[in-house]
Amino acid sequence: MTNFVLQAKGLSRHYPGDGVPVRAVDTVDMAVETGEAVSVMGPSGCGKSTLLHLLGGLERPTSGEVWLGGQRVDRLSETGWARLRRRSVGFVFQAFHLVDELSAVENVELPALLIGASRKAARGRALGLLERLGVAGRAGHLPDRLSGGERQRVALARALVNEPLLVLADEPTGNLDSGATAQILRLFAGVHEAGQTLLLVTHDPRVAATADRLLTMRDGSIVEDVRLEGGLSRQALLAQVAGWEP
Question: Phi/psi of residue 130, each to 5°?
Answer without folding.
Answer: -65, -35
